[in-house]
Structure prediction request, 151 residues.
Amino acid sequence: MEQEMMMALAKAGGYAAVGLAAVGSSLGTGIAGSAAIGAWKKCYQQDKPAPFLLLALAGAPLSQTIYGMIMLILINGAAQSNPQNWPVYLAVGIFGGVAQLISAAFQGRAAAGGCNAFAETNQGFANYLMILGVVETCAIFALVFSLLAMQ
Prediction:
C-alpha cells in the first residue's frame, strides 16, 4: 500500500474520533438542554426564579468532543512517525469515538434528570454533578485506554 493511502487511513481514525465524539456531545447537550428548557418553563409558570445552574448541567456532555480532539491530535501525531500502523489508528479512532459518543449521550440523559430535579427542589446540585462526573469518568477511561492501545 502506498504511503499516502496509509496516512489517509490513519488520519481517518483521528477524524472519526472527533466526529463521533461531537455527535455524542450534540445528542447529550440536546437531551439535557431540552430538559433545562422544560424545567425553566415550569419555574416561570410557578413564578419561581429559573436556576441558571441548569446551564452547567446541560453543557456537561461537551467535554467528550474535547476528548475526541485529543485523540485526533495524538493519532495524527503517531501516524506521522508510523503510518504502517494505520489499522490500529483507524480502529482506535472509531472505537474510541463510539465510546465518547455513548458517554456523552448518556451523560445528557443523566443531566436531564438533574435539570428536572434541581428546578423542582432547588437542592442537590452537587449530587447531580457527581453523577455526571461518574459518567465523565467512563469517557476519560475510554480516552486513556484508546491511547494505550496505540502503543
